Amino acid sequence: METLAIVLLAFFATGYFVLAGADIGTGMLTPYLGRTDHERRLVITSFAPFFLGNEVWLIATAGVLVGCFPDVEGELLTGQFMVLLPLLTGWIVRDLGLWSRERGPGRRWRAVCDGAVVCGSWTVALSWGWLLAAPLTGAPYERAGGVTALLVAVATAALFAAHGLGFATLRLTGLPYERARLLVGRTGRTGRTAPWQSFALTAALLGALPLLAGSALPLAEHAADGATLALLVPALLVVTPFLVAAQVWTWRTFRHRVTRPSYL
To answer: Is 108 exposed, middle or buried (0-12, 13-18, 19+ CB in 10 A)?
Structure first.
């Protein structure tokens, strides 16, 4: 049961980084991709159908960690509280900006909400890098500091942004698409990079981050008791296919490029 719990934790964490990394990265680059109010709304429309479903994977990850590895969760919460605080703050600010953008008066209000989306996205990406720096440097329960933490945080944020660019080339049209395409680059015999190539590469790199960080955590030694795992793990195995099916349905339904703004 401990092994299954670890596999589920890794699956949900990897799913979150790969899927939510796309909308976080696109949100980070909104000022570059969208130069006008209309273009920025088009950029937000590109990931609007996905961000809530993507966040479910983080909730599932936290649920597995709390339920199946309570000792590890307690140590992480205590030792990394000052890292989790900006992470959660950025998450809330970003979502408030997304939900409030079209619910206030005028362009200034939308500009403020766009700023919240951008700042929140950058805060989330940098905070994830800061959090991952601790287990990657061998001290998972201590807040990372110094040059190493800074480099890991910046590198992680850059990877989120690159993932967002790959996503943007799959979803956007017009000038926002051309700007994304310019940074993704053109390679190969035809002088062009297939949009999926960039997205797949950054997805693999982002997915590797939680796996590398998780390998530094003593999960097997601090798993919950057998009775708890016997109750939680089968329940998670039943729920997981529905979560995956919902995600596949969402991505299939909104697989086409956006050509006009939506409700956000």
So the answer is: exposed
Q: How many CB atoms lie within 10 A of CB 167?
A: 27
- Kindly report the number of other CB atoms within 10 A of residue 218's CB atom: 13
pLDDT digits (tens, 9 = 90+) for 16-28: 999 999 999 999 9
Q: Do the beta carbons of residue 158 and residue 128 sit within 8 Å?
A: no
Residues in Cβ contact with 196 at an 8 Å cutoff, skipping those fewer than 6 apart = 170
Phi, psi of 173 (to 5 degrees): -135, 170
Q: If you write DSSP's letter for every residue of 167-220 in order, what string do you get? A: HHHHH--HHHHHHHHHHH---STTS---HHHHHHHHHHHHHHHHHHHHTTS-TG
| Sequence-separated (6 or more) residues with CB below 8 Å from residue 224 | 5, 67, 68, 69, 70, 232
Cα–Cα–Cα angle for 116, 119, 125, rounded to 5 degrees = 130
End-to-end CA distance of the chain: 42
Q: Is the pTM of this model over 0.90?
A: yes
How far is Cα 22 from Cα 183, in angstroms, rounded to an integer?
A: 16
SS (H, E, C) 46-59: HHCCCHHHHHHHHH
d(CA 198, CA 69): 35
- % of the chain beyond a pLDDT of 70: 95
Please report where in the chains the tokens 């049209």 appear, as a residue: 173
Provide the token pair at 89: 């703050």
Radius of gyration of the chain (CA): 19
